[in-house]
Each structure stands twice: as C-alpha cells, then as structure tokens.
Predict the 3D structure of the following.
Amino acid sequence: MPRLVSHPDEVKIVSSRFGKGAANIDRYLELGGYEAVRKCLAQGPEWIIEEMKASGLRGRGGAGFSTGMKWSFVPKQSAKPKYILVNGDESEPGTCKDHLIFLHDPHSIIEGAIIAGLAVGAKMGFIYLRGEYRYLIEIMERAVADAYERGFLGKNIFGSGNEFQVITQTGAGAYEVGEESALMESLEGKRGVPRIRPPFPAVVGLYGGPTVINNAETMANVPHIIRMGAAAYAAVGTPRNGGTRLFGISGHVERPGVYELPMGYNLKKMIYEVGGGVRGGRKLKAVVPGGSSTPVLLPEEIENLGMDFDQVGKAGSMLGSGGVVVIDDRTCMVEFALRTISFYQHESCGWCIPCREGTDWLKKSLTRFHAGFGTASDIDNIQYLAENMLGRTFCPLGDAAAMPTLGFVKKFRQEFEDHLNGKPCPYAREGVPQLTVV
Amino acid sequence: MADVTFIVDGKKLTAPAGTLLIDACRKAGIEIPAFCYYPGLSLQAACRMCLVRQEKVPKLQTACTTTVAEGQIFYTSTPEIEQARKAMIELLLGNHPLDCPVCDAGGECELQDMTFKYGAGESRMVDVKRHRDEQQWSPAVFYDRPRCILCYRCIRMCGEGMDVWALGIHNRGANSVIVPNDGHQLDCEQCGMCIDVCPVGALTSGTYRYKTRPWEMSHVSTVCTHCGDGCKVTLGVRSTAEGAEIVRADNRDKSGINGDFLCAKGRFSFDFVASADRLTEPLVRNAQGKLEPATWEHAIRVAARKLKEIRDARGGSAIGVIGSNRTTNEENYLLQKFARTVLTTNNIDHARSTDYAAFARALAGTEGKTASLRDIAAASAILLVGGNPTEEHPLLAWLLRTNVRLNRAKLYVANSQPIKLDRQAKATQRLPVGSYKDLAAFLVQGESDFSKALAAEESLVVIFGEEFRGDAAENLVAWGLKRGPNPDSVRFAYLGDYANSRGAADMGLFPDLLPGYVPVTAPGAFAEYANLPATPGKSMPQMLEAAAKGELGALLVVGADTVSRSSLDSAALKNTFVVVQDLFLTETAAVADVVLPAASLYEKSGTVTNTYGDIQMVRKAADRAGVKPDFEILVRLAGAMGVDVATLVPFSKRGTTGDLGQSRGAQAGEADRHAVWLEANGLEPKLSPFDPLAVFDEIARLVPGYTVDRINLFAGNDVHTEPRATPGFVPVGAIQSPSLVVPAHDTLFTSGTLGCYSTTLRQLEEHQSKELAKAAAD
Amino acid sequence: MSANSETLPVFSSALATRFDALVEKYPVKRSALVPMLLYAQDEVGYLSDAVIAEVARRIGITELEVRNVATYYSMLRFKPAGKFNIQVCTNIACMLRGGYEIYERFQQELGIGPKGVTPDGLFSLEEVECIGACCWAPAIQVNYDFHDELDPDLVPGILDQYRNPIQNKGKNA
C-alpha cells in the first residue's frame, strides 16, 4: 500500500480526504462529498464555467491549459452526444499522484465529472485508468456502482431530471494513450495513435461528439473549487496558477512521497524541507521538475524557483505532471539519459517518422555510448537528432523525448565526454548493476 | 467553395477555401514533398515531410492537413524547412537498408528521389540497423520490412480504396510492422495495389522482383487484354533474343479512366504472352493427317487456295467465319469485310458474352444515353442490376466504390444474391433468382422504398449486363428512358466480358448485322462493299450444325476456341477445312488444317472498345518472333486469294505522303505524338496495308457511332462511342435467340483461354482457393 | 473459429457472461475491445489464437483488426507467462532507488533471465516501464499486485508469498 506522507507546508485540498476512508460513499458524504454537485445543479452551466475560469485551474496532466477555457469551447448545440473523459492513464515516469486520488478519494473524480457534464451538457462520462492500476479500477468501479445506487448517477441524478452515466475503462499498457486524442482512440477500441487536429476534442472528440477531457487530478479539484469558491481557490496559488498541486517527490530524497503544496512553492525547499533533503546527505546533482519529459535542472537553477507553470517555463523546463525526480551526485547522467530515452523509444506509437526513428536512433546511440563505445561526434549527433525531432512530431511524445535529451547533453556534456574512448562509466559502482542493452 | 487568396513563398495563390495546402501548392508548381500523402486516401500527417511554416503559428504545420483560408502566409523553402526535410530523410535512412543496387524500386524510388533532392550528403548513422527477413505473402506480394517507411499507403489503399482491409499494422514504435490478414499469408483480391502505391521497395511484385532495372525497360502504354473494362496499362518491356518481353504491368502515369487502378489480371497476368505453349510458327496438316510446321508463305498459300476453291465451287454460303472478343476493332472490321466481300458470306459470328444487339436496339433513336466509365465515375446516383462487378468488372467496382467514398454518390444495388458492393450501397433490393426480367415492371410499380428512392434521383446511371437479353434489356431501358425530360436523367451501361467484346459487336461480327448494328437486309447498306450478300448468314451454332452435316466447306476461326466453348465433338469438323488464327494450340486449332500463330493484344496496334463504349488505342509492346497480328494475316490471306488488298485496306495508293519515320526525330517510338503530328499536318498514317490505322478511316466513315475525336484517341485518351442503331431496325435471329449469349463469368483469377496459359494467374487462383478452404475450416 | 467454439469454450461461463454485458455497455461495441482482451488474458493467461478469434467474433471485427490493436498494448501478450508474472519497474524513479538491483535479484532467485519463465511455470519475469509508484520506489507488480519500497533482500519473501499463498493470505493488496 502506498505510504501516505505529510508536511506542515501542505495545503490539503485535493488530498484533504486521503487516509480518511472516503472511498466509502457514506464517509465521502460525511466529508462534504457531493455538495458541490448539488450547488452546481442550482447554479447552472454558465456559472460553473465562470467559476472554473476564475479559479485559475490549469490542467494537471502537464500541458497546463485553463480548464474553464477548455470547457467553454464545447459547442452548446450538438447533433452528436457530448462526453466527459477523465484521463487517469497516469504514465509519465515520476508521476503517481492520481494513484492516490483513485485509492483514497474516487468519488471526487466522479463528482468532478458530473459537474463537467452539467457545465457542457454531456450525459456520459468515462473514467479511463491505466491497465496496471487494476486494484484502483476495482475501487473506482465500486465507487461508481455506489453512486448509481444513491441516484447520484443515472437517468435522473439527485432527482434533478439531469442524466449522467459513468463508465470505467481500463487501458492495457501504453504511455501514448495519455495523449488526449490517443486516449479517445483507445477508448474506441483502437490502437492508441493520436488524431489529426483540428478538429479539437471539444468539437469532435469521442465517437465524433464534443468531448471534454481532463486529467484525474484536474477533475478531482473541480468539486473543491465549487465548494470553497473560485476566489478562495485561486488565492492559494500564484497569479494565473490557481490552487495547489500534488507534487510527487521521488528519487534520491529522504522522504519521497506525494505532497499537496500551493502552486509556486519553492523547488529547493520542496527537496530539502518537504522531501527531507538528498538521501544520505549526498550532494544534489540535478532535478527533473515535472516528470521525465521535462528538461533537467541544475542545483543553481532551482535556488529561487517557484513551482508553477510560468516560472518553471521561464527556467527552461516545464512543470509537467508535478513529478519531481531528485538526482544525487553519484548518478551517471548518461545512464539516466539512456533510461529516459529507452522509455520513449518503448512508448513511441510509431506513427510519425521523427519520433519513431528518432527515439530508436537515440536509444541505440546512448546504449553504445554508455557502454564506452562512443565517439566525440556522437555527442553532437545526439543533440542534432533531438533538435531535429523537436516541434516536428505528430504529437508531443516526440518533444517529450527530445527536450530532456537536449537538457542532458547541454547541461552534462562533460559527463558524456568522460565516457569517451572506451572508458568505463565513471560512475559505475561495485555491486550496482549497469543499464545495458534492453 | 469560394476562392481564397493566400501567399506561399511570396507568391499570391488562389484556390477554393478548404483546399489542402499541399494540393494548392502542387497545382501552382510549388513542390511539397510527402510520403504518406496520397490523393484520394485519408490523411495521415505521419511522414512529416510536408512541414511548412505558417505565419503567426508557433509550430511547423503539415501541408497535407492544412486547409487554405483567406490571407494566410506560408513559407515552404526557408532554411528551417530545408533542414526539417533533410533531417526527416536522415531519420528515415537511419533504419533503411541501403540495398538500392538490388532493390526493385531502385531508380524509381520516392525515398531515393527525395534523398537526392532534399536529403543529406552524408550519413550520421553508425549503429546497427534493424533487420527482419523478407516475407512472401502470396504469389504476387512480397514484403521487406527493413525497407518499409511506414507511410500506411498500402493499408489505406487496401482498405479504403479496395474495401478489402487485408493489411494491418502490428506492434508499435520502431517495431511496427505491416502484416497480412492471414498470419503470414495474404487473403485478398491480389490486386497488387499495395505494391503500386508503395513509395519504396518494401512491397514488391512476385512477377517483377529482381527481373530488371527500371531504366532497362521501355514503357508502352496500351490497354489491358482481359476483361471488358479496358484499363489503361503501361507495359514495361525489355529486348530479348525472341523479340521483346513484358516484365511488368502497371499504370505508372495514372492516365486513363483507371488512374492508378489495375486488378490482378491487369497487373500480373501478362505472362501468357511468353508462355512456352505459344504458337510461333504456322502449322499445316500434312498428307498423314498430322499438323507440321510450315513457312508463313506456304501456310497462307494453302489456306488461301482452299478458301478460294470452296468459295468458287460452292459459294460463300459454304464458308463460315468466327471472330474474337479480344482482337482489335480494325481486325474485327477487316474480318467481317473479308468475310462479306472476299469470301462473300454473311456466315460470320463470334462467341457472344452478352446481348449488345439488344442493347443497341433498345437505345435506337436516342442520343447521349450511354454512360462512359467517366460518366459512371462522376455519377451522382447509380443503379447496379445483377452481376458482381468486384469479380467480373474490377475497374467498375473500383470506380463505384471511389465515387461513393469520395463524392458520396448513391449506389443502388438490385441483385438476386448478396454482392460485395452491397457494402457501398445506399439501398439494396434483393430479387428472386431468375426474376431480373421482371425488374422493369417492379420498378414501374414504384411502390417499394427502393423504387421511390430511384424515382427521386435527378439523374441516374443504370448498369446491367447479360441477365438482360432481348426484350428484357429493352424493357429495362424503356423504363429508364421514361424517367424525365432532364437530358441527364438517365444513362445506361451494359456489361460484357472481354477486352473487345463490345468492339466485336460494334464491328458487325453477326450473321445479320453489319458494323454499327446495320441489318444486312437494310437497303443500300454499306453500298460500297462489293459482293455483299443481302441475306442473313448462319449464327455460330448454325455453322457448327452445318459443319456436322457436312454442309460447311470451310471455317475460319480467329482468336476463338469454338470447339472447347461449344463442347463440340471435334469429329464434327472432319469434313470442313478449318483455318485457325490463335496464340495457342487450342482444341479448335488442334483439329484445324492450317494454324496461323497470331499476335496477342500486347503485340499489336489498333483500337478496342470497352463494354461502356470507350474506345482506346492499343499499342504494340511485346514482340515474339514468328507471330503476326491477325490484321496482317487477313490481308495476306486476301492477297493470296488474288484480291487487290487496297480494296480491303485503303492504304496509300493515291500518293498520300507516307511518313517513313523521318519526321519522328527525337520522339521516335512515341506513337501518340507521331499521330498528333500527322493529323496536324493533314497526313494519315497510311503507310502500308498492314497498318491497322489505315482502316480506321473507313470505320469512322462507315460505322455509325465511330466518328470520334481522333486526336484525343491517338493521344492515348478514351473517346466515347454509342450504338447508333436505326430506329425500328428489325432484330433478327440473334436477338430472338438469347441462348446464343454464353457469358464467361470470369472471376478475378480466370480469363478464358489466356488465363489458362498464365502461370501467375493460376498460382493466384490456387493461393486464393487455399485461403478460402482455410477460412471455411475455421 | 467455429471449430473451437464447438468443442471447447474459450472462456469460462462467468467471463462469457461478463463479456455479453460488456459489449452492450458502450455507445459503440468496439469500445469493449481493449478491456475484453485484458480480461481474457487474465483468465486464459495469454492471447491465444482462439481468444483472438472469439474476441473478434464478439466485437464483430476481423481477427486482423483485433491483432492490430492487441499488439499495440504492452500488457497484452501472445505467449503464456508464468502463473505469477513479476514486473519490475526500472524506470528513472525506480532506477535511482535500486530498481535494477531488484531486477537482478529476482533473476538470481528464480534462475531465469529477462522475459523468462520458471520451469514449473509458476513465475515469469520482465522489466517494465513506469507503473505509477515512483514515490514508493523501487516497486514491482506481481500480476496486478503492487509491492513497493523494496530492497533486494525483500525479494525472497515476496516469492515465498506466492509460492505458499495460504500462509501469506491477505498480505499486500
């Protein structure tokens, strides 16, 4: 069972019910559950969307797009049914926050989805969880069944005359399905290959109908925003970055875990105070701030870095999914780069040339390089490949592979050079297996 | 859509709003490279070769998915774009085996061409490339994964274009691989379209692979010899000691009504030409009753002397002539002229696969009521009655599917059994077996939703075939003609089997009808024909009956296997002097007294008319020492009978400037340009009595409906003809004896006699019957 | 396919009933495809030809289409795995905290290599990508059970737990 952690700096909104048995519907109701949706039924769709806009809530999946705006793009009239999709295909390395929401507070996601449905006029929602989360799917299915039983879901929710159905769906192992249009393909029983856009999901989405798709954490925030009020929620974060964020601190820290901190929380503090500092008192070498696709940051770059979309962007990386991976001074960055690119090579859907061939080539080069068979030109070549994938792929997966690679090569060029001319990995340690060809 | 103006590389362009940028650019002469984009197929945006910069848009955009709108500004050849293209090629080549020297596609490979034009001069790849062994999916299709660039053209062509869906994709990322539907075997229509659209050498053809280099071939554009649809086909030809062999068939210039389409027969079944069973020298029956090789001079002399003898002694009515569904219009015309004016007989017929005479009679007095294939391709609504075009008229099926898919045409299918095209149909009407003849009455009643939907269509193309003969054909046409005053309210297409079945009928291979469906009894018909007998002759069964009774002195059979087709006891011909012109020693040839080895349609020039009435040029591609075109054989026979051949073939007698080739200059070999040049200079290509085009003049002059646009025809385009039968022309035996029509019902993998001598076609048939058996066992 | 369905049912009657309901659940039948494949694998052990054929029949698509989709998803397999399939995450967060040491220890304890199956068919072992347990790294999954905050020395105990399920009942998920 994943260990729950806490820290005094935490502002518990989305995690406020963690560890309180809220997967049980009665417990959820005791803790203020399904109050937000009742309020929404009274206030109407326009109000909901305005509240969402005012809250400053931005997508927690990684792209950080305003949730209120997203909802407002859905056409009022539509010949085809509209749908709400909850993206729980949490697969970005370094990220395990939705895991806890599904485990501890599944009803908040259902409630968020109902509110989204009311806002845009959708009568059906899907909650898509990655296939590995089987035990969480079972929890989610239980919660959905309970909600149906209470009349919170169905043809006449809360006796309001509104209809909202929810179906829980499992994936079967594909990072790419976390991309919103690929998720729709998967949900339609197809290969998880993204779609050409435009049209965008808000206009033509699942089964060709207008579709709102939000990350699970985003959706779980929705009832809280409604309950506490958009202004109060926005006040928690920094300008244009409303509320809190579930930050997953992992890697070489003393107290890894998922912490809910206000947007804009200082990264250095996050590592040294919330996470308890680098494990074993070692020195910090680098930190990946928002999941494996975000470019690595050096210790000197995090001194005054507030963790919100805009500040991390200015620092040359991205807030991404909030997965902070801490790397100590004994780590080989070439190996780290290789493991990162191996993942993207494994997960590339293969649709477009630059991603399919680029990740494959990078993996081959880095494998050879790390094994000590690299040449000086390889370093430039790795950079060249990543630069030429960037911005040219069919979907963001190509960028997700290229961006961190560029970060590693540019910021740790010396470590790459240290691997040259048949030298063994300078960071190899006795008894620690080395990543070789996968 | 209204036109919009936008700017590409500083040039102001105009196109209808919503046009794809890639199309708009290509039209304006701005090349945008692409692998996955293929006109007519769904969009992929996968190859990323067509990336362009659009002003005010942060990321590069794919030109294949960007639609143009007013005021947009694009850049397609900046250093940024050039680098993007270069890198894309480098990435592709990273895993591509550079086996171009032995790759079939080498020399005509899109990846090669793009590397040359946009690629990098050096390779950065030093790591090991992925390898997978080559697979053979069918006798026709091989797949080499390492060469595959995953453009998905094959998958889309097979699914969207062919509606077969036999190709899929397995795995993901760099492990992705194209797969056939039956494990490692392909269970499909074997059309080879996947090979055709493959931009590289990943999909290769069983008949072509490792045979030659593209630049070693000459490419001759002609017409397929198999079914009645008349696809244009480009034959890749290479010199051999025997003459010239065909090594490949495709429609590489995508010209003609079929565009890039060819079926299995058109693409793979040209090997009958090179069959070891081909007759390559004349045979004459010797005193011992055995056929023995003879010189052409001897064989012609023997045949001519005997034919003349019988004609002079017993009259023309003692001689019969049977023509072919695969010989050219000029040959058929000449054959009937030879029969009627030299042999002085109307005993002429051919193996009728459908009742064109009834169709002509039904349309008598109308104009513009027949549908060309182009009409069908653009029709807004089509009624398809009977038949199964997917098997018997693959091009028609392709055009119907494409028209439905891309233009939302409405297809109505009335059939007594389910057919594959039902899938494209807006509505289907199941008819009881054997009830086609009642269809017109059913439609006239107009009570069903089906007939109401038809009635509501403003214009309609009605396609039907041999199920409608005689009166039934006439009734259906009469129903259609009543549809309304709109000149486009109805058009008809009538389906028949072979490459020139329609031409054989149009050219008067009937005992009672002259060319153009003119009754032989019509007063003053073909007055310039000397010795034209005015009474109808014998039909094919009547001739054979007469032969059995010993009343037929001689029988000339051109390109038909009458014995096998009529299940005739070969002894029935023992008292008849039989001359056969054919490619093979057929059952009929085996009992002949003189056998003259004929050229196939791929070894001669002329014109053919497809079943829709589209006339197209046939050009000589292959060459086989020892054989002669039927046209030449007939002229030689006539000459040997003492006829002034100029009365048969109006070749240069009056001092017309014959072009001896000097004027062709650098364009030597390009017959179409040559023809255009001659026409423009008031010259006719009347070089010799063996030049089939010398007789085309006379056809155009005498045969109703054949006064056509010759420049277009000679330039390689299809021109439409329609039967211009005289209203009220009296149908004779032919039409009242529907039993004379024996449809071939060839499938995708059979093609009459030719099919029997095509090893590839037999292999494909065997492969598909195995697949069928497997599916049945599942 | 009929040969199989006539002789032996591909799925248990419980699963068949579940699938009957599943295809009715969605606005479009085909949406049941991915779950169906995964649940079928859970029961049968892998996606055999018979499973593919039966799923194709139930959804109403070709076997080729089923395979196009099935081969895309990394959790789906086409060969039998062990009764307990051990999936060791070695992605960055786990790697930093010893994921490869865990992976190596499993190999030693089981005497099998990557993608190997023990001779008794009880265990199989594979390296997998991130399983969403980064903050509790290193983590593994045995079938669907998570085991987190591991140490190589915990490996024998985990294996025992599956070898002797009765005495360890109720532990860990």
